[in-house]
DNA sequence: CCTACCGATCGGTAGG
DNA sequence: CCTACCGATCGGTAGG
């Protein structure tokens, strides 16, 4: 991306994200995609090798965004509660900034061929591990309840930040940071009035 | 279902749930479906009117299960925390008992034709409303924090119980009730050690 | 980037 | 429930 103008390939990927997220991978034809870009179906193959390459690229970029946002947080010294909050802020930010790719990511990765499929499940495990680690550190530090199950706690946090792809609409009253903060407040302090 | 044996139509719907959840609606051909049932593609049309009828029926049945489980709880007199817990138990139970239909429901409803599509969005709103109502009652009763936003709180609860379709595996250590209880404990009491 | 085309496969139907 | 078939559309390629 040395150009200020997006390359044709980038345009194809952007449009593919939009169409795949709206209609699904299999329900989007290469002719649909080409038409949206003002070209003929066959012309796409001057820029890409095939349909699956588009899906792989979209999914890879999305997972790389999560990686960059989250893993750099590992060595940041913050109290556990603040660290979890910051992770959630970054996580929701990635979802919000990439609503379409995120939707494709969550819905269409099952349609990848075995090797790309395996990479995604491996990636998913690494994200689970990141959050479990964060929870365990918080328990060990005495900040989080000792009776928490790190695995289930990680699932709960991931539910909150991932599910946002189904309802969040950019440009609304709440920005991604507000959403993450609201969720973090509720999760950390609980819904019930303290006894 | 006066028969103890499932009708051919029921078998078709069951198999369609499995295939649609594994491969997606559009990536499942009617010949795939027929083959799984030991028949020819054209033979399906003696039992159903078309492919979309299958999707509509799967989605309708799933939403009816949620309705039955949740709305009957409206008039049950329980403390707000226990009522939310019970709603989550029932919600996760429906997801766990119908992992395949639930997956189809969450992933494929976008592919419905306009009228069926509108019914699903309407249904989704009614589930949102159910949880918001429950939260609001809890706030008014003084059981939940006054600073909660019922809308965001409902999203958080729904995230937890819905996202289970991506990771829950029946037959594991935790039953659906355990999952819901663990989530409810964390949500109600919070992750942090009380100050 | 287009035209023209490939074989394969799609959902669905007719007639039995 | 099967055989045989319909028109439409699919992802992708050849040659320019």
- Strand count, sense and closure of the main sheet of chain A? none
The total number of structural domains of chain A is 1
Classify the beta-strand content of chain A into a percent band.
Answer: under 5%
- CATH superfamily membership of chain A: Tetracycline Repressor, domain 2
- Molecular shape of chain A: elongated
Task: Classify the secondary structure makeup of chain A into a structural class.
Answer: mainly alpha
User: Fraction of residues of chain A in helices?
Assistant: 55-70%
Determine and state the CATH class of chain A. Answer: Mainly Alpha
Q: Helices and strands of chain A, in N-to-C order?
A: HHHHHHHH
The total count of strands of chain A amounts to 0
Kindly report the CATH topology of chain A. Answer: Tetracycline Repressor, domain 2
Q: State the low-pLDDT regions of chain A, or none.
A: none
Assembly of the depicted chains: homodimer
GO molecular function (chains A, B): DNA-binding transcription factor activity; transcription cis-regulatory region binding
Pfam families (chains A, B): TetR_C_24, TetR_N
Organism (chains A, B): Deinococcus metalli
Keywords (chains A, B): DNA-binding, Repressor, Transcription, Transcription regulation
């Amino acid at each position: 991306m040395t150009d200020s103008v997006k390359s044709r390939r980038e345009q194809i990927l952007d449009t593919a994200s939009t169409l795949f997220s709206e209609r699904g991978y299999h329900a989007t034809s290469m002719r649909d995609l080409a038409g949206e870009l003002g070209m003929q179906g066959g012309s796409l193959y001057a820029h890409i090798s095939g349909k699956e390459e588009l899906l792989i690229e979209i999914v890879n970029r999305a997972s790389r965004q999560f990686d960059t946002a989250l893993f750099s947080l590992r060595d940041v010294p913050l109290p556990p509660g603040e660290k979890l909050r910051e992770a959630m802020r970054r996580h929701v930010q990635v979802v919000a900034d990439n609503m379409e790719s995120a939707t494709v990511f969550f819905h269409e990765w099952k349609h990848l061929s075995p090797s790309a499929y395996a990479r995604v499940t491996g990636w998913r495990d690494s994200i689970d591990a990141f959050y479990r680690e964060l929870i365990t550190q918080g328990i060990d530090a005495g900040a989080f309840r000792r009776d928490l199950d790190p695995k289930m706690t990680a699932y709960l946090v991931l539910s909150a930040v991932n599910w946002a792809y189904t309802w969040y609409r950019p440009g609304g009253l709440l920005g991604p940071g507000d959403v993450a903060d609201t969720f973090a407040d509720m999760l950390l302090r609980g819904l019930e009035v303290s006894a």
